Amino acid sequence: MRNWPLFGLRVTTPRLELRFPSLDDLDALAGLAAEGVHDPGVMPFLFAWTDAEPGERARSTVAFHFRQWGAWTPEKWSCSFVTVVDGEVVGTQEIGATDFAVTRQVDTGSWIGRRFQGRGIGTEMRAAVLHLAFAGLGAGHALSGAFADNLASLGVSRKLGYVPDGVEIRSRRGEAAELRRLRLARDAWTARDDIAIHGLEPCLPLFGADRTAESR
């Protein structure tokens, strides 16, 4: 689509594809949300959207993406890809930034359907979006964060070279919980030659990355 080139944006690795979702992709992702994302006894998210009933989780998943699309500006954007393995949507990987042209800093977040967890997909999809951030957009830093008891997310960050960046105490289901911030600098990032970005060039102005891209 000429006026919304993000629909052509993809990042591919030997194991998976990140792509800007179609309506069919969102429907598949909503189905995964309805099935469940985590053990109900824990809460890995700052906003407890997964506490809703299955049907509401599905609808809110679609609405969340529509809100992101409608609010997108080069100064403040959030891009949530669907993660596709062997032709099947298995989860979502988000990357976002505020004033990226100035800060050259991005945040990431993700979730995977429960039946696809434990296969190393989380590490691979984070590696893919970091390639987009550093090799594609010219980012200087990537940020992440996880509650202290979210060992899976913290483990992914550790594997990819993130370092501690402080802690916060946040309210989670009405109780105090420690959130650990993490940071990966471009100089500490390990590039891979088996990850490819497709359709990025026409999207660069939407990311506020046209200026930073010139310095790559």
UniProtKB/TrEMBL annotation:
Entry coiled-coil feature ranges: none
Keyword set, alphabetical order: Transferase
Bilayer-crossing regions: none
Taxonomy, superkingdom: Bacteria
Endoplasmic reticulum listed as a keyword: no
GO function term, MF aspect, one: protein N-terminal-serine acetyltransferase activity
InterPro entries (UniProt xref): Acyl_CoA_acyltransferase, GNAT_dom, Ribosomal_N-acetyltransferase
Domain N-acetyltransferase per the UniProt entry, residue ranges: 16-184
Cytoplasm listed as a keyword: no
CC terms in the record's Gene Ontology section: cytoplasm
Protein name listed in UniProt: RimJ/RimL family protein N-acetyltransferase
